[in-house]
């Protein structure tokens, strides 16, 4: 217990009567129920079972219950949960078993509803890579949706614009006292569709988890254009790790360019024929619900198969250059997502959970000894926190090849959590390091792993 007190700081307790609605009250409720989802913000935690979302803090603040309008015919349920934080706007994003993405305000209002793909949403990932001041690289903030064999990408700015429009409408309705009609249509047809890209990534089998790791250069012999390419890493039953190059444009390959120049007549005929079919499809589907869009091009890059080993969970470093992958046989693989090679391996960590964090490992400068010194980004070192529930410990390892820095004892029924990425944070604001939190399911105590070894 002494190591726990030395290396974690208690923040508060989330215990309340409402927690019984999501299964609290019996031993192991937080970790033994696969349908229980958790999402952490810097101020609140959201927990969800198949049909209910509970939002609470670790103080005496108000608590909110949200019951999404799910389809009883399709036995629709909540399958993914995440916070979306844009400056002053904080909302909850929900994925369902029927492929819908729902966005709720903190007063329970349905802000947005959109079909992504007609399969179960496994995870909602929120991440961003800020603009480098020393290089002319554009910032990239995104929301990606992981579905078995499919990955979708929304641009963060599109979501921000939608939420700002909603906030303006809400404020104007407040003053005019006009009732809102945003959630009047049960099918979600009244909501403005947010554009997104969709890729099929089941070349090596359906994925259990996936992530878009960042922007990558185009392939050789590819026509140069303003279109961007992304790298996606997937893990699953058939392939422990596989990687894909994702293209925004489906018609940018050299083969497509040759065909469009050599056989223009054929190309024109096919285009005309497609228009005729498209008109017929539009007439027949005029009154039906909108179908998901077609796939963009996804080119396989590499694949690691090691039967019977199965990839289970994936977590990305802040820059997206490293990924920690857990598998079914107790291994944790550290993947370099740019070189697409495994650079480190841990064994004996069954059912493990991993999060990247930043710690004050070295503070050699003169100002570090001052009590008024505010650490900068350069003072922190990237580490990996590994929760091994069967061992009842949390280990912190320095990246990429550094030693184990900490071993922290934790009680059975505890869970590691990490706050969601915050969109649009200013470069002038103080640097906030990546932190990892520990929630004790039995007591409801929430603690944060300390940034310093001292």
Automatic annotation (TrEMBL):
Domain Rab3-GAP regulatory subunit N-terminal as annotated: residue spans: 29-417
InterPro entries linked to this entry: Rab3GAP2, RAB3GAP_N, WD40_repeat_dom_sf
Pfam families reported in the protein's UniProt record: RAB3GAP2_N
Top-rank taxon, per record: Eukaryota
PANTHER family: RAB3 GTPASE-ACTIVATING PROTEIN NON-CATALYTIC SUBUNIT (PTHR12472:SF0), RAB3-GAP REGULATORY DOMAIN (PTHR12472)
Listed name of the protein: Rab3-GAP regulatory subunit N-terminal domain-containing protein
């Amino acid at each position: 217990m002494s190591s726990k007190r030395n290396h974690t700081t208690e923040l508060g307790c989330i215990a309340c009567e409402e927690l019984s609605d999501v299964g609290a009250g019996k031993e192991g409720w937080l970790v033994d129920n696969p349908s229980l989802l958790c999402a952490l913000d810097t101020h609140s935690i959201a927990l969800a079972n198949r049909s209910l979302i509970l939002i609470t803090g670790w103080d005496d603040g108000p608590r909110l219950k949200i019951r999404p309008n799910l389809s009883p015919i399709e036995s629709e349920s909540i399958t993914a949960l995440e916070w979306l934080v844009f400056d002053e706007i904080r909302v909850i994003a929900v994925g369902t078993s029927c492929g819908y993405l729902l966005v709720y305000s903190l007063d329970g209002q349905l802000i947005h509803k959109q079909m992504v793909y007609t399969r179960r949403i496994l995870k909602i990932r929120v991440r961003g890579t800020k603009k480098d001041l020393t290089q002319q690289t554009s910032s990239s903030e995104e929301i990606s949706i992981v579905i078995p064999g499919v990955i979708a990408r929304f641009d963060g700015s599109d979501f921000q614009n939608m939420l700002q429009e909603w906030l303006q409408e809400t404020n104007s309705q407040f003053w005019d006292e006009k009732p809102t009609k945003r959630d009047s249509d049960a099918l979600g047809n009244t909501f403005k569709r947010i554009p997104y890209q969709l890729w099929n990534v089941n070349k090596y089998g359906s994925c259990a988890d996936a992530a878009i790791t960042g922007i990558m250069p185009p392939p050789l012999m590819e026509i140069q254009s303003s279109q961007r390419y992304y790298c996606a890493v997937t893990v699953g039953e058939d392939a422990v790790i596989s990687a894909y190059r994702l293209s925004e444009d489906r018609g940018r390959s050299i083969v497509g360019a040759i065909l469009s120049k050599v056989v223009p007549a054929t190309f024109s005929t096919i285009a005309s024929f497609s228009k005729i079919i498209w008109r017929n499809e539009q007439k027949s589907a005029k009154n039906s619900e909108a179908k998901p869009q077609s796939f963009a091009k996804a080119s396989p890059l590499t694949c690691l198969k090691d039967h019977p080993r199965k990839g289970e969970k994936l977590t990305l470093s802040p820059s997206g250059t490293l990924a920690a992958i857990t598998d079914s046989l107790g291994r944790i693989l550290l993947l370099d997502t740019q070189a697409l090679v495994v650079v480190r391996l841990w064994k004996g960590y069954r059912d493990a959970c991993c999060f990247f964090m930043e710690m004050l490992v070295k503070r050699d400068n003169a100002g570090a000894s001052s009590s008024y010194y505010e650490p900068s980004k350069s003072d922190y070192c990237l580490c990996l926190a590994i929760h091994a529930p069967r061992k009842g410990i949390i280990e912190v390892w320095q990246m990429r090849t550094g030693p184990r820095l900490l071993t922290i004892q934790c009680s059975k029924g505890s869970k590691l959590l990490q706050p969601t990425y915050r969109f649009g944070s200013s470069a002038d604001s103080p640097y906030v390091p990546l932190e990892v939190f520990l929630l004790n399911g039995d007591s409801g105590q929430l603690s944060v792993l300390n940034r310093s070894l001292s």
